[in-house]
Amino acid sequence: MKMKKLVDSFNYAIEGIIYAVRTQLNIRIDFVFALLILTICFFTSLTRVELLIITITITMVISAELINTAIESAIDLTTNYYHPLAKIAKNTAAGGVLVTAINAVIVGFIIFWDKLQPAVNHVISKVKNSNPYMIFLTLIIVCILTLIIKAIFGEGTPLRGGMPSGHSAIAFSVATMITLVSPEPIVIILSYFLAVIVAQSRVDSEVHSVFEVVVGAIFGILITMLLFKIFHL
Fold first, then answer.
1. CA–CA separation, 1 vs 8, rounded Å?
2. Are 212 and 164 in contact (CB under 8 A)?
């Protein structure tokens, strides 16, 4: 009997995680980033302590999202009208998620920067000595690949809506190319800032969801980095 209760408790917990993944966009994004970070760990020489820190950090972010979902569901169950305390509870729970996310960014920067810096510097040096037409070729390839993926998903039109966000992919692709070419930190920061504004405008205009914009940004960055790496082997 006790064993059955223990098994049931595990099943309920797993059902809760599955529900959150199915219904909450932020948790799906967290899992995607978690898989990406864990994949990077395979290609970097992390110590056991560093791997432990990464694992705990990822767990904290996902746990905070799950708790936030539980709080929102409990409030929605008991309150079917606007109440300032309900707003405070939801905002505070979301604030807890934000704190863990900021902590994750700081931890990732501290652990991975020294390990990835030599590879980043190598790519930058190659890009600076590259043919200027390479930039235009990369932009064209990103556009074509984005259109192909839109056609596969069959959503939206080539220039509006669908998965992924083409504007976001192109904006972040251009920002990544500027980052690889320019040695000025302020230029790099402004480039990504403008890319974020472009992505945000697509969400505000309700042309794309946050998930489609995030996927477009990641797609544009990764394809740009991959193309520069391939053409400069």
1. 11
2. yes
Q: Which pTM does this prediction carry?
A: 0.56
SS3 of residue 100 by DSSP:
helix
Give ∠ CA 142-32-218 in degrees, rounded to 5.
20
Cα–Cα distance for residue pair 125/200, rounded to 1 Å: 32
Question: Cα dihedral angle (75, 80, 84, 90), rounded to 10 degrees?
Answer: 30
Rounded distance between C-alpha atoms, residue 215 and residue 31, angstroms: 13
CB 108 within 8 A of CB 37: yes
**Catalytic: 212?**
no
Query: Helices marked H in 43-132 — which ranges?
Result: 48-78, 84-128
Query: Per residue, what are the HEC states of 25-45?
Result: HHHHHHHHHHHHHHHHHHCCC
> Which residue among 65, 155, 206, 212 is the active-site one?
65
Q: What is the largest CA-CA distance in the chain?
A: 71
pLDDT, one tens digit per residue, over 52-84 is 898 899 999 999 999 999 988 888 887 777 778
Cα 175 from Cα 160, distance rounded (Å): 21
